[in-house]
Amino acid sequence: MTTLDTPQDLAATQVRVNDFAVKLANVNGTGSASANGLLMRAIFRMGIPVSGKNLFPSNIQGLPTWYEIRVNGSGWTARALDYDLMVAMNAQTYAADVTEVRSGGYVLYDSTWPLDAALARDDVTFLGVPLTQMCVEAFERPKERLLLKNICYAGVLVALLDIDIDVVATLVDETFAKNERLRESNQRALRMGYDYAREHLSCPLPFHLSAMDATRDSILIDGNTATALGCLYAGATVAAWYPITPSTSVMDNFTSLCRTHRRQAVHRPDGEIDYRNDYLIVQAEDELAALGMVLGANWNGARAFTATSGPGISLMNELLGFGYYTEIPAVLIDVQRTGPSTGMPTRTQQGDILACAYASHGDTKHLLLFPANPAECFDFAVRAFDLAERFQTPVIVLTDLDIGMNDWVVPSLTWDDAYLPDRGRVLTSADLDVMAEFHRFADEDADFVTPRTFPGEDSRGAYFVRGSGHDKYGGYTEIPDKYQEVVDRLALKHAAAAGHMPGPVVERRDRARIGVITVGSCDLAVREAAELLDATGLPVDVMRIRSFPFQAEVREFMAAHETCFVIEQNRDAQLRSLLVLETGVDQSKLKSVLVYGGFPLSAKHVVDGIRNSLGG
Amino acid sequence: MPSIAKPLVPLQHLQRNDLGLTVRDYEGAPSTLCGGCGHDSVTAALIEALFKLGIPPHKIAKLSGIGCSSKTPAYFVRGAHGFNSVHGRMATIATGANAANRELTYVGISGDGDSLSIGLGHLAHAIRRNINMLYVIENNGVYGLTKGQFSASADINSKSKKGEPNLLPPIDPIVMALSLGATFVARAFSGDKDRLIPILQAGLSHKGFALIDVISPCIQFNDHEGSTKSYLFTRQHEVTATDFVPPREEIVAAVPDEGAISVTMHDGTAMRFRAVPEGYDPTDRQAVARFVEDHRARGEVVTGLLYADDTVADLHDLNKTPAAALASVTYDRLCPGSDALVKLQASFR
Ligand SMILES: Cc1ncc(C[n+]2csc(CCOP(=O)(O)OP(=O)(O)O)c2C)c(N)n1
Ligand code: SF4
Ligand SMILES: [Mg+2]
Question: Structure pTM?
Answer without folding.
Answer: 0.95
